Amino acid sequence: MRVLAVDPGLTRCGVGVVDGVPGRRLSLVEVGVIRTPSADPTPRRLVAVEDEMRLWFERHRPEAVAIERVFADTNVSTVMGTAQVTGIVMILAERLGLPVTLHTPTEVKAAVSGSGRADKAQVTTMVTRLLGLDTPPKPADAADALALAICHVWRGGTQSRLEQARLAVLARTGTAGGGIPRRLPAGEAPAERGLRTAVRSTRSTRSTRSTPPSRPSSTDPGAQPR
Hints:
This protein is α/β, with parallel strands linked by helices. The chain has a five-stranded mixed beta sheet with strand order 3-2-1-4-5, with helices on both faces. Helix 1 (42-60) packs parallel to helix 2, helix 3 (105-113) crosses helix 5 (140-173) and helix 4 (120-130) packs across helix 5 (140-173). The protein has one domain: Nucleotidyltransferase, domain 5 (2-Layer Sandwich), CATH 3.30.420. The chain has helices at 42-60, 76-95, 105-113, 120-130, 140-173, 190-209, and strands at residues 2-7, 12-19, 27-35, 64-68, 100-103. The chain is built from six helices and five strands, in the order E-E-E-H-E-H-E-H-H-H-H. A hairpin with a 4-residue loop joins strand 1 (2-7) and strand 2. The chain is 50% helix and 14% strand.
């Protein structure tokens, strides 16, 4: 599996591409940081990030995309820039039909170092060791992106395959006349939907049978005297 991981940020956006499967040695494909001048208008900076990110997708053709989940922060402008870059990456991935997974910083730290409280130096050391690098990746944004990619290979790979299999089943069986897909509840297979419909039908039949017959009205000509 080839994973493109993004540590989103408007001033510095870490990007890392890693090849690997759970239980086997990982290999680094490329790592880097997309930078935009803080003095530029935000729309221009977002366009610059999108242009650079598009090149990463075209150059490496990933099979999955991992993004660090955004958390609230006291610096509103930082949070907004991070969220905006996250949206750009999601749009690019969706247009290419790639699955996108969000991982929390704690989840990434635990996957790479074994502790959700590991500091950046510990995470960087483990990334260097796991990928067999001669020197630690710099800056920290680059190391964070690689840690995110490693986390996704080890933890998110199975989830991505299950989701793809589920969507494939829905594509084959969840269609109505005219080729328009029918939306099913998340996680509900066609067989489960059929069982649920059958249960509803059975309950409706029981309700009808259990309803007592109404007494004839006194104004009914055919009513018998009491």
